[in-house]
Every structure is written in C-alpha cells, then in structure tokens.
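Appendix C: a fully annotated inverse folding record. The material below is reproduced so that readers can follow the format used throughout the book. The structure is listed first as tokens, followed by the designed sequence.
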C-alpha cells in the first residue's frame, strides 16, 4: 500500500471546523474512507468537513466547469463521513480566508465555485481589526411551499422520546429542516448524539436546526448536520433558521438582519432582494502541516 503526503490547513468558522487540502493542479482524488479518516478526531486531523481547494477548471467536476470564468477556485466539500455536500456556509468563509492568506485572491470581493453555484464573498474589517466575511449564499426556497402555506409546516421532527414538533424544510443549496422550541432550556437539554427523526424522511437526508427565539431578530440554535452529527455551528443552517422564523413570524420592522448564536459563536443573516440571503461572520486558520494518508 502506498502512503501519500498531503499538505493541509486547519480552520474553522464559529467552531465548525475543516481540513483544507490545497490541490493547485487538480491531482488529488479522495475516497470517502480517506475523507472520513482525515476528519476522524482520534485517528486523523479531525474536522466536521474536508475541503479540497482546487482551480475550478482543473477540479475534474464537470457540473462546476461553467463557473470557472467567474470563480477561479472551487470549494470541493465533503462531510466528515466522506459524503458530498452541495454547500457549506461556514466553509465558504474559511475557504475565502485561505485564498486571501495564500495570495490566491487579493480583491475585497471575489467569487467561489461550489456544487450549489457561484457564491460571492465580501471581506470587511471588524471592530477589533479582524477580517469578517459576508457570503451571498444565493437563492433559497421552501422545499414544500404549498404544504407549508396550507399547514404552516411541512414536516415533523422527533428527538428521542420528546413529542414530534412541526418543522419547515428549506433548500439553501443543501437541505435543512428547522424546528422552533419556545423554551431555551429545552434547547440545552436536547440529546443530539443521535440523528433526529424527520417525517417524511428526506430522500437525501437533511440538516436539522433547533431554534430558540431570544427576542427581536435574535435566535439561539443547535444543529445536527447531515453526514456529521451535532456541530458547533452551521452557516447554511443559521440562514435556514433565520429564514424559517422570519417566514413564521413575519419580516422585522426594525431591520431585516438576524443574529444567530450557536455554541461556537455568532453569525448574522440578512435576506437580500430577489430571494437571496447573505451570511456573515468570522473565519480562522489555526494550523498548517503535512498529513500522511
Ligand atoms: N456546516 C455547513 C454545512 C455542511 C454540509 C452539510 N452537513 C450537508 O450535508 O448539507 C455550513 O456551514 O453550512
């Protein structure tokens, strides 16, 4: 058996953590078992996801080739279990931070190719001089608009022996199911060590967000991610959570920006015109090295 040595960078966005693998000539191919090994927190480097950083034109992924003219770099995203995911909101910020640090993108605004289409990133400076990243996640939609309009929800979610709770399914490029729990303590008490039971069961699985509204435009969220388990943050999940609460409660009159607190920090969500949505927050690169596979 041959051993491969791969360069890596480890980073996180509100503690949703990723192993980034630079692949400038498109030569790295990873089996799901290799991804799972890299993401393993004991036998590997550890991460909620593994991201190959590859030129869009060289990625070997035909469905993203048409993005190459606008987005030079493709975020090739895998969940910790080795499965492919179309999108990762926190991942786009960490990916952008990596491109900037490496001098692969120098402008304050640039585009990233993903399996869910091209995402535009805007870089700004936060109050303590830190870089913040706002990502236009693109169009979102209710997965079952007719059912949701008729019943106010389109799914039921059950966690262990709790009662099933009505939920809303949203498509942010990847699938989400959002549940609102009125009581904050209930949110802390949830056991998310096993996947919540969603009915009807989505064919390709779903990320499940549990939300507790804290007041005007302010939410607390925990998430069980498809292909991972409970994580300390999920960017597309935070956007889904804010959009679901907005759909249920109505647009805020005091400004349509939503603060979402997750166990790993805080992100902000801003609905944009034409059914788009923006996610903003920090990104950190914490280590670089070489890993042997
Ligand atoms: N953590 C991500 C979402 C990653 C993909 C997800 N687990 C899926 O399978 O859809 C985010 O920040 O959006």
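Designed amino acids, in order:
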């Amino acid at each position: 058996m041959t051993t491969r040595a791969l360069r890596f960078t480890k980073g996180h966005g509100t503690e949703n953590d990723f192993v980034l693998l630079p692949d400038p000539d498109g030569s790295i191919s990873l089996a799901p078992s290799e991804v799972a090994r890299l993401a393993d927190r004991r036998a590997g480097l550890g991460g909620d996801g593994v991201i190959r950083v590859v030129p869009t034109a060289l990625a070997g992924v035909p469905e993203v080739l048409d993005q190459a003219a606008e987005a030079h770099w493709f975020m090739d995203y895998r969940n910790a279990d080795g499965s492919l995911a179309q999108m990762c909101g926190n991942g786009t910020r960490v990916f952008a931070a990596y491109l900037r640090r490496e001098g692969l993108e120098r402008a304050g605004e640039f585009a990233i190719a993903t399996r869910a289409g091209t995402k535009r990133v805007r870089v700004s400076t936060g109050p303590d001089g830190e870089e913040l990243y706002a990502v236009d996640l693109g169009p979102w939609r209710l997965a079952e608009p007719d059912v949701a309009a008729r019943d106010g929800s389109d799914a039921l979610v059950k966690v262990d022996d709790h009662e099933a709770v009505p939920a809303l399914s949203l498509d942010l490029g990847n699938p989400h199911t959002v549940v609102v729990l009125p009581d904050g303590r209930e949110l802390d008490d949830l056991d998310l060590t096993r996947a919540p039971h969603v009915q009807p069961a989505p064919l390709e699985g779903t990320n499940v967000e549990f939300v507790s509204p804290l007041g005007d435009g302010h939410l607390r969220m925990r998430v069980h991610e498809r292909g991972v388990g409970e994580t300390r943050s999920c960017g597309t999940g935070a956007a889904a959570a804010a959009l679901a609460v907005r759909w249920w409660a109505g647009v805020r009159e005091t400004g349509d920006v939503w603060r979402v607190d997750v166990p790993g920090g805080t992100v902000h969500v801003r609905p944009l015109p034409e059914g788009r949505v923006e996610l903003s927050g920090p990104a950190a690169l914490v280590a670089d090295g070489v890993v042997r596979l």
